[in-house]
Amino acid sequence: MAISGESGSGKSELSHALAQDLKKAGEQPKILHTDNYYRVAPSERLALRIADNFKHVGVGEYDWDLLKSNIGDFRSGRMSLMPCIDIVSGQLDRLITDFSKVDVLVVDGLYALGIKDADLCVYIDLTWRETRKNQALRGKESDDLYRLRVLEKEHEDVLAFRYRADLIIDHDYLVHEAPDPDDAAAEGDYAGF
């Protein structure tokens, strides 16, 4: 299952709520946060983005090969070594997971709908402008002009994956079946994923 939406839209909260419900239903879920798959550590990311005038903000910042490998480990029921960013220290840790004991993988993140073989794709239809209060409460990143440039670029990239959604959660947090995508919608593909 893949859950996508813009910054502060509630992806992590939805993932955790779904995981709890799955657990109550007798399934063993595992949440995989794609924020852990950035190629550059959080402490270095802003400087790099500024240095290239924000040209590479977006889907290319993920280590898609590692993400695909970890999802493959889940599908094969193997042990997996996954990245885990400590949000306090910014340090990259490694988490060992035994996927043989996991029934459902819930992947959340900005570009989670970039995972082509997800069995269910959910898109939370809130923009960063609508979630600024949530972002401020989280306090994960400063709210300055640099951050606004990042949010705007992420908005464009996240929106490009919307057509892949099976379900859309609207502004009132109501769930709707997504309309059939146009045949011409080839946007949003990344690295053949």
TrEMBL record:
GO terms for molecular function: ATP binding; uridine kinase activity. Its EC number is 2.7.1.48. Keywords: Kinase, Transferase. The keyword Transferase applies. The keyword Kinase applies. This is Uridine kinase. Residues 2-125 form the Phosphoribulokinase/uridine kinase domain. It comes from Chlorobium luteolum (strain DSM 273 / BCRC 81028 / 2530).
